[in-house]
Design brief:
The structure is a single chain. The chain is α/β, with parallel strands linked by helices. Helix content is about 35%, strand content about 10%. Helix 4 links the parallel strand 3 and strand 4. Helix 2 crosses helix 7 and helix 4 packs parallel to helix 6.
């Protein structure tokens, strides 16, 4: 059975934008993916609210992607899914396009260092919805600049995937952020995510 690590932020954790809680096992995409994969793939959920990709998060190691990822890679995985990067766009970090590029490349290199035989699937952050500017919870973290920088992610991640021979999946044409905050996804979108990722995994392993 192929082992798959789903590493990411609050959208991999299963953050519910309506109430701030966590979606249950029948709702969040990683858990739905495990049900779709029963008997075929073993899914490891590794999401965390407010986790950054490459910026040092003041909340510590668990919340800083490049620092905590090696801990997960102590186990062997046939595929590592990296869907992370939205929180680095918070205005407090003031990241440049080059920093986004180097940040995701660094995460890929960490995987290749620890698990050189593992396949890697890159999923870029989606374009942040303008609803975030009116969000009671997130408007103090994300601003207009954050939204503009989110438009860069898909191309930068795709370029990285080509450079490092990774697989790539852009969910931007499949799902839309919630009207509650422009950052997270409602339950119906999580089902779409799970199905899209499952189909991509099947494609990755079809000749293996």
């Amino acid at each position: 059975m192929k082992r798959i690590l789903c590493f990411g932020d609050s959208n991999t954790y299963g953050y519910n934008p309506e109430n701030g809680g966590r979606y249950g096992k029948d709702e969040r995409w990683t858990a739905i993916l495990q049900k779709l994969s029963a008997g075929k793939y073993e899914i490891k959920e590794a999401g965390c609210n407010n986790r950054t990709c490459f910026r040092d998060n003041f909340e510590g190691k668990k919340y800083t992607g490049y620092l905590i990822l090696p801990d997960y890679l102590a186990e062997n995985y046939d595929l590592v899914i990296l869907w992370i990067g939205s929180n680095d766009l918070q205005r407090q970090y003031n990241v440049s396009e080059q920093e986004i590029k180097y940040g995701i490349e660094n995460l890929v290199e960490i995987v290749k260092l620890h698990l050189p035989q593992s396949k890697i699937l890159l999923i870029p952050p989606l374009i942040i919805g303008r609803e975030v500017l009116a969000s009671r919870i997130f408007s103090f973290l994300f601003d207009e600049t954050s939204i503009q920088k989110s438009y860069l992610a898909a191309n930068l991640y795709e370029d990285t995937a080509q450079k490092y021979n990774c697989d790539f999946l852009d969910l931007g044409n499949i799902i839309v952020p919630s009207g509650y905050d422009g950052l997270h996804f409602e339950a119906g979108e999580h089902k779409k995510i799970a199905n899209a990722v499952y189909n991509k995994i099947d494609e990755i392993f079809k000749n293996v």
